[in-house]
Sequence to fold (662 residues):
Amino acid sequence: MTTAENLDQPQIAITLPDGNVRTYAAGVTGLEVAQSISKSLAKAALAVTVDGEERDLSRPIEHDAKVAILTRDAPYALELIRHDCAHILAEAVQQLYPGTQVTIGPAISTGFYYDFARDEPFTPDDLVKIEKRMHEIVDADSPFTREVWDRDEAIAHFKSIGEHYKAEIIGDIPAGEKITIYRQGGWYDLCRGPHLPSTSKIGHAFKLMKVAGAYWRGDSRNPMLQRIYGTAWRTEKELAEHLHQIEEAEKRDHRKLGREMDLFHLQEEAAGSVFWHPKGWTLWQALERYIRAKLKDAGYLEVRTPQLYDSSLFKASGHWDMYGDNMFKIRESVDDQGREKFLGVKPMNCPAHVQIFRQGLKSYRDLPMRLAEFGACHRNEPSGALHGILRVRAFTQDDAHIFCTEDQVPSEAADYFKLQLGVYKDLGFDKIAVKLALRPDVRAGSDEVWDKAEQGLRDALTANGLEFEELAGEGAFYGPKVEFHLTDAIGRTWQCGTLQLDFVLPERLDASYIGADGARHRPVMLHRAILGSFERFIGMMIEHYAGKFPLWLSPVQATVCTITSEADAYAEEVAKIMAKAGLRVEVDTRNEKINLKVREHSLAKVPVLVVVGGREAENRTVALRRLGGKDQELLSLDEAVAALKREARAPVPSEGVTEAAF
Fold:
C-alpha cells in the first residue's frame, strides 16, 4: 500500500506490528505514520519504536523498518512519562531557585529523581512550590524538541552558563560524538531521549515525595548533592493507588512492627546483624521447623559447614575474584617473602557443600544427593544499603545443593518446583511470577556450557507448565537461575527463591562421581533456595501479614486475660492446660481494665485473647476474642483448647499448586 504524497522521493517500507507493510517517502516521521493509520492513533501516540529502538514521534525514519506506535498503555510509556517528569522538575527548580546546577535525572522503578547542586537545602515547603510550578509547566503544553550539538561546543556552552556538572558529563563522552539536547519551551537539557511530543502529554498524575542527599557520581569523595524524588503514573487513579500503597507500607514497616511485637532490634555496634528477642526467635524456629520437615519429606540430608575458610577455596571456586568485594576477609599471616595469607568468611554455602560431596568416592547410584543447610553467611554490604532485616550483612539461608546427572535434572527441577510452590502456598503467597536470569557479562565457563545450562532451565520450566520471563544479564557468574517473585498483600513484589543450574563449580572444585561405565564424570550442581534468607523472608512476612500471622506461626498464639482478680488462679490453670496442649500462651493477670489489656495485646498482634472472669472460672469456660474482631465466642475450656490446637498445627504438605497462581 502506498501512502506517500511525493512518489518522486525515495520510498521506504514500514512494517507494522500486525504484519501490514506500507510505503512512505524516506524521512517520514512516526507521527505521520500514526496519522496515516487513524486520527485517534495520532492523538494517542506518545513515541515510536523503529526496529525496537524507542524514538521521538518527530524523528525522521530514513530506511525500511519495523515500526510500532507507542500509546499511553504501552509498557515503555510509563518510563517516558517519568523521564519527562524529571526534566519538568529540573526546569521548575531552576525557575524558582536561579543559580541551582542540574546534574542527572533518570526514571526509576516507581518514579524519577533529579540531583541538584545548591548551597541552601530544599525544605518541604519548597517541594510544594516546585510541584505547583511543575503543573504549570505541564499546562503550558511546550513541545519537546531534539537538537544535535557539537561535543566541544556543548562543553563550552554549559561551562559558560555555570553548569559545570553538565559540562563534566559531556566531557566523559568520547570526542567526535554528537550531543543531543532537548528543549521544552525556553529550558533545555542534555539527554539521549526519547521524549513525549509535549509537556501536556505527561498529565498531572505525579507528586514530589522527598529530598535526600546523594554524592556526585556516587563517590563519597565528591560533593554532596540534593536529590529530589518524585513518583509519576499514567492516571490519577494509579497515582492514588501508589500513594495508598506507600501509606500501607508505612503501617506495615517490619521495623515498626518488630518493636511493637518485641521480635528483634538492630543497633550500630552490630550494623547489619539482627538481635532476635525471645518472641522473634520463636517465630524463626516455627518457620525453621516447618522448612526442615518439608526438606526431610523431600529427601534432603541436612549438613553444617564452617564459617571461615582459607582464601584458596574461594580462589578455586571463583568467588575471590568474582565476588571478593562483597566478602569479609581476615589477614591471617605474612610469610617471609611478605606475602599475605587471608581467610574468608563465607558469603554462600556452595563451595562448602562441594567439599562434603568430594569426601569419599561417589557412584552414580548415590545420585541425586541433596545437601541442605540452614547456613549462616556474611556479606560486606555497604552501610547505606542496609535496611532493617530486609538487607543485612549476617544472614541465614535455607540453602541446598543437589548433585545429580544431566539426565536427572528434569525430574529434580520438577520436584523443586513442586516443593517451592507448595511452601509459598502454605505461607500465604498465591501470586507468583517466574523469571529466568541469563548469563551476565562477567562469568565463568564457556558459551557452550552456558548455552546448555540456560536451555536446561528453559526446558524444565516449560515441561512443568510454568510461564516465565527472561532477564538478560541477571544470572550468577557460574550459572543461570530461575527466580520466584512473590506479590504481597499490598501489591509489592519480592524476589525470593531461586534454582541455579551449574556446570562450572563442579569443574572448578573437581567434584566427580563414578558412572555406570566405570569412568569419572562431573555431576551437575543445582543450587536452590526457597525462602532465600530467613531474615529477609521474615521481614517480608511481617509486612505481608501486617504482623497478624496465622496461628501456627505466631510467636504468642494466645494470651489469657483476666477481667477481675478473682479469676487469677483459673487463668493460670487455663494457661498451663493450653501450654501442655502445645500452644504458645501467656497470662495477663494485671490489675487493669480488660479494655486496656485488649488494646495492648492487639498492638502486639496476639491472634487470640482468652478472656476469663469469675463466671468463666465457675463454669470452666473461656471467651475467645480474635485479633481485629469485636465479638467473643464462649466455649468450654476443653472445646477451646481442642479448637486452638487444631488451628495451630503447621500446614500439611501441599497436594499441588494450580496454574492460577501465576
